[in-house]
Amino acid sequence: SRLSNYEHNSSIIWGTWLHRLCPWQYEILYHLGIKNNFFFNTNRLYLEHLIIKDREFIIDDKFTEKYNKFLAIFDDSSDEYKNQKIWLSRGLVAHRRGYWNEVQIEILLRREGWLIINPEQLSVKKQASLFNSAEIIAGVQGSAFFAVLLAKYRSANIKTIVRPLSYDALYDRIARATGINQEFINHEFMDLPQGRVLIPDQIMSFLKK
Predict the structure, then answer these.
(1) 65-102: string of b/e by CB count within 10 Å (b at 16+)?
(2) Angle at 89 between CA 104 and CA 150, to 5 degrees
(3) Residue 143: C-alpha distances to residues 14, 40, 90, 102, 125 (Å)
């Protein structure tokens, strides 16, 4: 949240137990033009001089226009996804929180001509291009939808299925700050021994609106 105020002649201290960044983090930083040295720290650290910039984003109550413009870096669109209806699958997410029968919804959507995309299999740039290209992007609430922040045009209509008992106002805040067209569905679900399940007819009706 402070990187939009970053001075490019300074090194960055990154607190992480991994001692490194993940490949997708490097990709984002590279395209944001942040290529200076990183120092990874997991212990107590003493510095003679430390610059701490103001945050342009705070989860509870702040998302500035400066931060919005800073992130909107990808203007690519994709003929492959142009005007398509896309479902962002969570099938490859380990220990995913959500609904037991999400795969059933994906089967029904395929029959209706939707593309089922696993975001983890795409580069960050390609994920952002979905939001510049598709007609509709839908799925169960999750971090895959934050890729819209990196898209410049954000022309896709976004339909989000809220996870059980975990509606997050952050998605509303992002929609207001960026001007994206986003709908949410708080819906009925059933509790079965294997887990919570979506009601397919209800979800399909919502997605066809």
Answers:
(1) eebbebbbbbeebeeebeebbbbbbbeebeeeebbbbb
(2) 155
(3) 21, 24, 10, 16, 15
Q: pTM, whole model, 2 decimals?
A: 0.85
Q: Please, are residues 130 and 81 in contact by the beta-carbon 8 Å criterion?
A: yes
Report the C-alpha gap between 5 and 34 in whole angstroms.
11
**Class of residue 22 by CB neighbours under 10 A (exposed 0-12, middle 13-18, buried 19+):** exposed
Q: d(Cα 128, Cα 148) in Å, to the nearest integer?
A: 6
Q: Measured between alpha carbons, how far is 88 from 99 in angstroms, rounded to an integer?
A: 14
Q: Would the pLDDT of 83 be above 80?
A: yes
Q: 32-43 burial, b for 16+ CB within 10 Å, e for fewer?
A: eeeeeebeeeee
C-alpha–C-alpha distance, residues 70 and 95, integer Å: 32
Residue-wise pLDDT for 137-164, tens only, equals 999 888 899 999 999 999 999 999 887 6
Inter-residue contact 147 to 122 (CB < 8 Å): no
Compute the distance between CA of residue 48 and CA of residue 209 in angstroms, rounded to an integer.
Answer: 58
Q: Which residues of 184-208 are buried (b: 16+ CB within 10 A; e: fewer)?
A: bbeeebeeeeeebbbeeeebeeebe
Confidence of residue 168 (pLDDT cuts 50, 70, 90): low
Region class of 95: left (phi > 0), else alpha (psi between -120 and 50), else beta: left
